[in-house]
Amino acid sequence: MGAWFKELLPDHLVQAETGWNMGGFGALAEFHQDRGETAVTGGPGAFLRVTKRGGIRFASSALPEITPVAYEALSPRPHRWTHGIALCLPTQLARMNRRFVLTELGPDGGAFNDADRDAILFDMGLGVWQADFCIRTCAPGLLAILREQSGRPLSEPGNPAMGAILEVHPHRVALTRIGRVEVYQKIGGPDTGGVSPPGPHTHVLPKLLRARRTHAANLPIPDGLVPCGYMHPANPVIGPMGEDRPFDKKAHEAFQVLLSAFGDRRVLEAKRQVREAVCAGTDPANFKEKESRVERAGMRIALRQMMRAAESRCDAALLKRIRHWQGCFDRAADTGAVDDGISEHS
After folding, report:
1. Full residue range of the structural domain in which residue 27 is found
2. Do 37 and 172 belong together in one domain?
3. I want to staple 80 with a disulfide (CB 3.0 to 4.6 A). Which of 9, 71, 75, 188 is the partner?
4. Whole-prediction pTM value?
């Protein structure tokens, strides 16, 4: 892939529309920023972005090893799709410590802010392949509880540590071989109205963690690679808080460039064939559905993208044709796997 990251990462790190996360299937630390939000950067080549709410840093030494995999995924809502770029390492290079019990790691000398480097880092013991998912605190009361419960799983019955964590809201830190994400905001729960706050936040989903997967089954990650993080450029139909938005042609075209560079060639070809057939007026009954799951998903996504573009142009004739195709190939009952565990709004 060459030095793709030298332009792509710095460019997107300063774009408020691009979201990021690091972690694994069921445990994610996300970094988001608002337009105009004050941020600290590490200067040229540092691959760092830090705000008052959280931050992200990429390890320069790991960047040449990353394989970017661009993808699009179906949403259960028939007028949407999600997309992103998985930042992958070879399986063994991606492996972290996979601790399954709460473990004290000591002062966090790698913290972004000087004031946090004496705070104590604890691995939560979630056992994720490609991330050590941690909390960081200097609060005496929480430190005492965490130290008392070290060596036990957080989910063990009667363990008071998780309740104490939810009460104090310590920093969360996701450590991976490609870098780290830090989150300073409150943990989504009773103190936040049951929802994650806007901006940097974390997700820990026990149901997904129990699957012991490195990534969702519906992502076209090549064998031998593991995603350590994800980049989510602006979505053309979904806003930053998961809301519907009018079709954004510029955002759509920008991601198609990335998909062409880093996406699955089979999917690109399936999308091309569908677009050409629809535009040529081909009867969908004469079009053979693709055999592989990823190609079928690509067909359906291409139809959704054509539909949203035609709606934005008020092209009634083309819309009628696209909906006929969707009735054949994008049936609502066949949503497929949409729980991707990577926390992009669907």
Report:
1. 5-232
2. yes
3. 75
4. 0.92
